[in-house]
What we know:
single chain; 62 residues; alpha+beta; two-stranded parallel ribbon; globular
Amino acid sequence: MEPEEFADLLEASINEEYDTEKIVVKVLNGDKAKWIKKCADIAPMYYQLDRFHVFKAIIRQK
């Protein structure tokens, strides 16, 4: 699946499930993969590293 397709599906799922007029900020969690970061650029949302990969990065630095 291309990032554009994923971003469209993600937006459609959010619109179906939530009252989007009340959403102030959307955050997409990911694993540093280029395609997931690109989704955050396509859809109006912020990207951040997910918890698993944050903890993994912390453990690697010890």
